[in-house]
Amino acid sequence: MTAADGLGSDPRLGAAGKLAAAERPILQPASPAARRRRVLSVVLRDFYVLRRSVPRMLEIVYWPTVELLIWGYLSVFLQARRVPAVVAVLLGGVLLWQVLFRSQSEVSMAFLEDIWSRNLLNVFVAPLTSAEYLTGVVAFGALKLVVNVALMAAVALVLYGFGLFSLGPALVPFMALLLLMGWALAIVTIGVILRFGQSAEVIAWAMAFAFQPFAAVFYPVSVLPVAMQWVARLVPASYVFEGMRSVLADRGLPWGTLGMAALLDVAYVVGALAFFRRMLVKVRANGGLSRFGE
Amino acid sequence: MAILEARGLVKRFGPVTAVDQVSFEVGEGQVIGLLGPNGAGKTTTLHMLLGLVTPDGGSVHLFGRDLRHSRLQALSRLNFAAGYVHLPGALTVEENLIVFANMYAIPRPRRRVDQLIELLDLGELRRRRLRHLSSGQQTRVQIAKALINDPELLVLDEPTVSLDPDAGDRVRQLLLRFARESGRAMLITSHNMREVERMCDLIHFMAGGRIVATGSAAELASTYGVDDLEAVFLRVARG
Known about the structure:
Radius of gyration of chain B: 18 Å
Shape of chain B: globular
Radius of gyration of chain A: 23 Å
Strand content of chain B: 25-35%
Largest sheet of chain B: 6 strands, mixed
Strand content of chain A: under 5%
Structural class of chain A: mainly alpha
Distance between the termini of chain B: 35 Å
Structural class of chain B: alpha/beta
Oligomer: heterodimer
Largest sheet of chain A: none
Number of strands of chain B: 10
């Protein structure tokens, strides 16, 4: 104990009654203003954590840059062996894969922060709905992703002369479709961690990679065995990466396949939300939520 | 008027009945204690009242409305602190309070945070990260967070559990004065008999998931024919 611990007989404590009686200082809980403020609280919390964490800051730059260097120089090497369009295909794959991976991992990590800091019960007893919480973590994850992709795009341009914007307007649907899939996987990740506890946290890093072979990031779906091709057809990202290769080969944007990806994304998001809700009901029933306080 | 009504609460975890037909009320301005040995069902009961655990039977009414149908409204009018729940250690005192002021939809969060920082004498600590504070200081920040929305019901689960006697006593004084001067209700669990004796108007003794005795500290001691609450506790805990 230090002197600063002390409350003792501080006369200011007499203000407690006045403070309480003066006003009930909250917005109507169901009002849009209150909802916005609660979403903002989650964004603020994540921003403060990021601002005060050097490892978190480095994560935005470190792994993506390492990946970009490896794949970038591999593609430069292959190009020297006259493999056509390899730089654009591999670097486009790396950059767009980061959109999917980071959108999933950032949201999952934001939830894990609450577990690691043993703050989760404070969040669950606050008047914060699951939708508001998820909106907050997704919004902040999206902001981090913008910084992340901008940095990587700059590195790719400087080192390899590959401009991400060479994908043209197709970049917008590509990124949107990958973001949706990443967020759906993140919501499933959170549901799994809720259900099985902190021991399942490895899934926060592994989930997206389980889909990578089927997403056909660096190769066309057609090279996969037939059974894997069937699985790939159920992965929205596979249509995006096929679309990317189509655009880079000047074959235009395959809107039909992107429509399929959009439909699958909607199914993923709806399924993820249903799964999350089910897990929440389950952990409230079996006492699993309480155990996050132990 | 009761601001909290628990009626016939039941919770089973597999073959174990953790809470068995627990009923009680908390009225405006009342300070109610839940006492009992480890495994008595106190925390499970509190967590059912807070919506963290779904009861298998019974109901919880907060501020006259069923918690199942008015979670958002109910949770905005109460708050919670526990010895086993922390605030993010990477954030400063001020940042933590601003986050929770927004989470409870306080219209002018910075003003409210300033009020609480002054009230709880946290001025010198406001820009320090929580992880660098002592347990006593962290508990005061937790209590500041628990008062952020001026709760009509403050739920405290072993609030002084990790504190040394001096820090624990200071926190108790603070809570007691808050309850007396604000007229707000509190529901407290604790293993500290003196804490409960000093703070609570009414005590529910739990054992084996049930409320086995109810009364003021003096009434309970009289009922069990012992001198103080600690002796009552030992009597109940040892069957």
